[in-house]
TrEMBL record:
<dbReference type="GO" id="GO:0042619">
    <property type="term" value="P:poly-hydroxybutyrate biosynthetic process"/>
</dbReference>
<dbReference type="InterPro" id="IPR057326">
    <property type="entry name" value="KR_dom"/>
</dbReference>
<dbReference type="InterPro" id="IPR050259">
    <property type="entry name" value="SDR"/>
</dbReference>
<dbReference type="GO" id="GO:0018454">
    <property type="term" value="F:acetoacetyl-CoA reductase activity"/>
</dbReference>
<dbReference type="InterPro" id="IPR036291">
    <property type="entry name" value="NAD(P)-bd_dom_sf"/>
</dbReference>
<feature type="domain" description="Ketoreductase">
    <location>
        <begin position="3"/>
        <end position="183"/>
    </location>
</feature>
<keyword id="KW-0560">Oxidoreductase</keyword>
<dbReference type="InterPro" id="IPR020904">
    <property type="entry name" value="Sc_DH/Rdtase_CS"/>
</dbReference>
<dbReference type="GO" id="GO:0032787">
    <property type="term" value="P:monocarboxylic acid metabolic process"/>
</dbReference>
<comment type="similarity">
    <text>Belongs to the short-chain dehydrogenases/reductases (SDR) family.</text>
</comment>
<dbReference type="GO" id="GO:0005737">
    <property type="term" value="C:cytoplasm"/>
</dbReference>
<dbReference type="InterPro" id="IPR011283">
    <property type="entry name" value="Acetoacetyl-CoA_reductase"/>
</dbReference>
<protein>
    <submittedName>
        <fullName>Beta-ketoacyl-ACP reductase</fullName>
    </submittedName>
</protein>
<dbReference type="Pfam" id="PF13561">
    <property type="entry name" value="adh_short_C2"/>
</dbReference>
<dbReference type="InterPro" id="IPR002347">
    <property type="entry name" value="SDR_fam"/>
</dbReference>
Amino acid sequence: MARVALVTGGSRGIGAAIAKHLKAEGYSVAASFAGNEEAAAAFTEETGIPTYKWSVADYDECVEGVAKVEADLGPIDILVNNAGITRDAPFHKMTREQWSEVMDTNLSGVFNMTHPLWNGMRERKFGRIINISSINGQKGQFAQANYSAAKAGDIGFTKALAQEGARAGITVNVICPGYVATDMVMAVPEKVRDSIISTIPVGRLGEPEDIARCVAFLASDDAGFVTGSTLTANGGQYMT
Ligand code: CAA
């Protein structure tokens, strides 16, 4: 039987590439999304991957969503915590809402999604948790005190949980993408974006597929000895 993978924020951007790539590798894949119903419907029509609407920022919705996916596809073996948002502002202009929205989705969302799946993975003695952090969680970024804090938190979460999962056959890893050509990065003002691209040694933005291939490796049986690791995929922009 095919392993079951759930990708949060999986109907657009990096998440969509991950979902499609895992499906092409033979996994049974589900994608969650928070808001854009039109994009999700188009994605399901194009790929045949079922999409489910809930907010990763809401614990109860995550519990319900996971139960729905498992009723349809079976126990989830692979969780890709990809859903994320930006609310960029220099700190002197950042509001409490901008802080909380980003923390609730990008950090608490990872707790909210992983927690309901954890005991099942422990009982079945297999699991793959793959968290999508960011280069900006490693190096910090002007106007992203909220985002950088949440994404750095995802790295700490990964390292702690990897220790707890190790004896139960669960690996927990984190990928730190650099700047990838998605709606999120294209929303950065063009002038700022061009100056960022000039600092990327490979000379281009990443493609969503660059990240999907990293996920496929970490999800595979070949990666059973890889846990608690941080995989950076950023075109050389920041070296850790
Ligand atoms: N470093 C230093 N100073 C900077 C700066 C930087 N990177 N960016 C802007 N500034 C300066 C500006 O030059 C300006 O200075 P002056 O007042 O002296 O002119 C000052 O900061 C404030 O600028 P603004 O008044 O234009 O600020 P604003 O309130 O309009 O905010 C912004 C603009 C939100 C900062 C905008 O420039 C922006 O979006 N920057 C990009 C932030 C970024 O990289 N976000 C990443 C998004 S993609 C992502 O997050 C995916 C991922 O994981 C990689």
